Description:
The complex is a heterotrimer of chains A (316), B (666) and C (223).
Chain A: H1 3-34, H2 44-54, E1 57-60, H3 65-84, H4 100-121, H5 124-155, H6 160-169, H7 176-192, H8 211-214, H9 220-245, H10 257-284, H11 293-314
Chain B: H1 5-25, H2 30-56, E1 61-69, E2 72-78, H3 80-103, H4 112-131, H5 135-153, H6 160-187, H7 196-201, H8 208-224, H9 233-239, H10 242-267, H11 273-295, H12 300-327, H13 331-366, H14 377-380, H15 382-395, H16 402-415, H17 423-455, H18 472-490, H19 492-507, H20 512-517, H21 534-555, E3 560-563, H22 581-591, E4 596-601, E5 613-618, H23 619-640, H24 647-665
Antiparallel strand pairs in B: 1-2, 4-5
Helix pairs in contact in B: 1-2, 1-4, 2-3, 2-4, 3-4, 3-10, 3-13, 3-18, 4-5, 4-10, 5-6, 5-10, 6-8, 6-9, 8-10, 9-10, 9-12, 10-12, 10-13, 11-12, 11-17, 12-13, 12-17, 13-15, 13-16, 13-18, 13-19, 15-17, 15-18, 16-17, 16-18
Chain C: H1 7-27, H2 32-57, H3 60-88, H4 100-124, H5 132-149, H6 153-175, H7 180-208
Amino acid sequence: xxxxxxxxxxxxxxxxxxxxxxxxxxxxxxxxxxxxxxxxxxxxxxxxxxxxxxxxxxxxxxxxxxxxxxxxxxxxxxxxxxxxxxxxxxxxxxxxxxxxxxxxxxxxxxxxxxxxxxxxxxxxxxxxxxxxxxxxxxxxxxxxxxxxxxxxxxxxxxxxxxxxxxxxxxxxxxxxxxxxxxxxxxxxxxxxxxxxxxxxxxxxxxxxxxxxxxxxxxxxxxxxxxxxxxxxxxxxxxxxxxxxxxxxxxxxxxxxxxxxxxxxxxxxxxxxxxxxxxxxxxxxxxxxxxxxxxxxxxxxxxxxxxxxxxxxxxxx
Amino acid sequence: xxxxxxxxxxxxxxxxxxxxxxxxxxxxxxxxxxxxxxxxxxxxxxxxxxxxxxxxxxxxxxxxxxxxxxxxxxxxxxxxxxxxxxxxxxxxxxxxxxxxxxxxxxxxxxxxxxxxxxxxxxxxxxxxxxxxxxxxxxxxxxxxxxxxxxxxxxxxxxxxxxxxxxxxxxxxxxxxxxxxxxxxxxxxxxxxxxxxxxxxxxxxxxxxxxxxxxxxxxxxxxxxxxxxxxxxxxxxxxxxxxxxxxxxxxxxxxxxxxxxxxxxxxxxxxxxxxxxxxxxxxxxxxxxxxxxxxxxxxxxxxxxxxxxxxxxxxxxxxxxxxxxxxxxxxxxxxxxxxxxxxxxxxxxxxxxxxxxxxxxxxxxxxxxxxxxxxxxxxxxxxxxxxxxxxxxxxxxxxxxxxxxxxxxxxxxxxxxxxxxxxxxxxxxxxxxxxxxxxxxxxxxxxxxxxxxxxxxxxxxxxxxxxxxxxxxxxxxxxxxxxxxxxxxxxxxxxxxxxxxxxxxxxxxxxxxxxxxxxxxxxxxxxxxxxxxxxxxxxxxxxxxxxxxxxxxxxxxxxxxxxxxxxxxxxxxxxxxxxxxxxxxxxxxxxxxxxxxxxxxxxxxxxxxxxxxxxxxxxxxxxxxxxxxxxxxxxxxxxxxxxxxxxxxxxxxxxxxxxxxxxxxxx
Amino acid sequence: xxxxxxxxxxxxxxxxxxxxxxxxxxxxxxxxxxxxxxxxxxxxxxxxxxxxxxxxxxxxxxxxxxxxxxxxxxxxxxxxxxxxxxxxxxxxxxxxxxxxxxxxxxxxxxxxxxxxxxxxxxxxxxxxxxxxxxxxxxxxxxxxxxxxxxxxxxxxxxxxxxxxxxxxxxxxxxxxxxxxxxxxxxxxxxxxxxxxxxxxxxxxxxxxxxxxxxxxxxxxxxx
Lengths: 316, 666, 223
């Protein structure tokens, strides 16, 4: 692990931390445009996070230390994931410490801690949110793993640098199984990032909320960290989608500052398009009943399994 | 060339028997038993673990003891496979025995001295199973194990359900034992010599190897809790006292796995690919079954019992994969799969016993087993709660703890399968990997339910306010197990280096490259293919967490205000408004409705005393066991007609027997 | 792991995957209107892949059959179905005999079965895109499953039509098209079948006041 490698790694992490709230702001702006409303500023998420940091934290009287520790752990896990996902370059040193399966494991770690912290206070909202979140997670996590396995069957490895290298270097080969995996991945991302049609990120009605129910008790700096971690999660998922399905432009040979900064415009362009597509999907769909969520996610899971089978059949 | 390790193991077994017998001297004198005998047993277990550690890298040693039948004395043998499972036994038993020192109190059913005798007899019998080298010694030890554990399970024998659970357990154990005996009969191949050495030399042909394998799968599967012979596990584990449940779940199930490995890879010569597919399918079905049922349980120990069924399913699925690879002569990949299997055995021993012991502490502190009457115990029992959190995270398969490592290895083994020649198997494997991943995700769900309902939230009963934390010996035991989970998770390469001799023994290949490469990073084939470094992952997460705390507290502030929980305008929030265990499992019950036999009674709006009743029963009991019980009953009654109760009839029987025999002799 | 196939073969593989995706999505659909839209999309994918095969193998008659598919399956049949639905005043959710997740699980098993079945057969074929035979068979099986597990009449009809889609795709991709006579015959059969089925639906509705096919069981002789 050389010093330049370490610095490049930190650069990617810093860019991820800086751009994540901007992505959320962009998606909100697109949604407002599509719904013919005037949009809030693009920098609103940053201002929200700063405002939250300045406030006093209000903690419930029966909270355990787990409750106050959780936002930091979740934020740490998301930062770790951001360092692993090859958004700007593939040859980063930290990417060898965790492969695709460990990445999904990190997301699972964050999810379990959020659910446990939600159950900590012992109100009906928290426990209901925890139950729903674990339920969405139990189907979404296998689906995400199956998508990664499809990519790893094609590239012969589960190490993210190798996967992206192989997929980026192909001579305009079209992988049919990736079409199926792409649809599955989109469905999983919608579910995991608490977007319509699975969950409404803007709601606070208890009949409909999953994500909001779990963080109902949090305030101030804890909530700021959780919001930032959610934004990072959306950013990570988008970067995974970019890396697996449209990896052109990611620096694959070596990783130095200049090359990575040169790859940043490509990334930003892809995220702009991806954010708009997300807003489009959200506007065109209606939120499903919570009972339909297993069907939705089950379809995603089985599509991903189908993608793996097609890889076996067609060899690519 | 060390020849002294096997006598040391035998010495440990004898020591346990002595400790047990000493407990019989004054059965009701608790201080002696709990302060001297149990800690002594724990020390012996630790010594056994250390001996096994050395024995793993030593060549096999054999011995013949002049006990047993005149022409079949006890043959004993200590090779890497036995040593690995002895290490598992020793490490887990150290903690569990220490915990029992503080756990067994007098007054409920069996006196403590008797329990001490049965407990140490159980330990000794298990160790004996692991070093037996001929069928007779094996069966003697196996039966003693079953008997000792039966008495331990029915320690509180005044309660009828516990007696019934014990009977069911003993019945299925014996059915399994018959199958194992038949398997040994097939393996000796007509030579009449029942030692394992001669069985290794036998080359069976035709259908006999398959018959032997499936008999072994049936017999050892009955003890391990494979479908459909799992029916005793959810009854026996909750009925037994917690340390006994822990020992059974962590160690006894693994002796069955040891038996299966020994027969399949050591005593049988070649393996066939369709055995592997059968074991894989059976293992995955068991895993999914176990975890789906665990999600709807309301009794904490039953939940953990079903979770054990799930983990055994995963282990057997891994064994199936190993057989599949070995049948196609891909020994390097088979080594990866076998390493995953052994690692998971070790992991399961640690985190399952940790969780069972934690439930033991909770049971002692609150006298409640039902999840509907617990809650909020993290405030009253911090030691137990935080250590149980380590166990929960480990069993859910989260990095950087140990559950994730074995799951990772197994998934890596699955991803190598596209290289197999048969296309049917190649297609089947993505589906199998999907099933495995589904089981793992559901396990996380179940464990969040388990931990959240017991330790988090608010107490659901008023008397939970009097719960006290665990005592000193219990704490030490829990810390030992939690530390084991952490160490096994952070240093996988060293553990694999430890396990490697077993690969060489059973499969003839080793993972030397992996180990030689880099102690920090686990890369089974090479680093481009896949790699995982839990230590770095942990360090990075911890660094980010600490850095964030520092930065936030320095640039902003760390002020906190304490307030009542948010109640959204409802003034009367009680502890009963939290999710119950049934509530938490409701989504799973709804999605997997066809797997259960649900009996539900919903209250109507006109009920004066509305009540809600839901029971999720096992289909197997009604489809498989009840018909067998009924036909056995019927047969018994038919045969019972012979018993007429009149002397003249019995004399007629004897007369006819005499006539027939005289005819035959002529 | 990837052998470099010519471009058109890769495109055919891609369309095969899209076809499988659409068949699977039809299995998971709840609403009849989306079912018809998916069927139209399937027809479009089929037409496009036929055009690609026609261009690559230089068989001009396949352009004609692609046009036929387009007119029939993308425009005419969905229009007839929409009209039928409006006339019968039917907009229900699809009702099934077994719930959707189980249906999809059975679907996966069928796909594995179809892939396995197809691999020895596809070794015999001589075209570059022979691997898509398995996918075509899987589409046929999934449509059959859809026909079996639906209770109302319209989804069953759509299942029958998409089964024909799967067979057509098998013909074009594995054997580079069928004789024109066969094509025209099949197309005519399908069209006539649709018209007759439309008439039947009205009759069923007249008789039983509902299009639930379980009512047809009343027609059997009771013991």
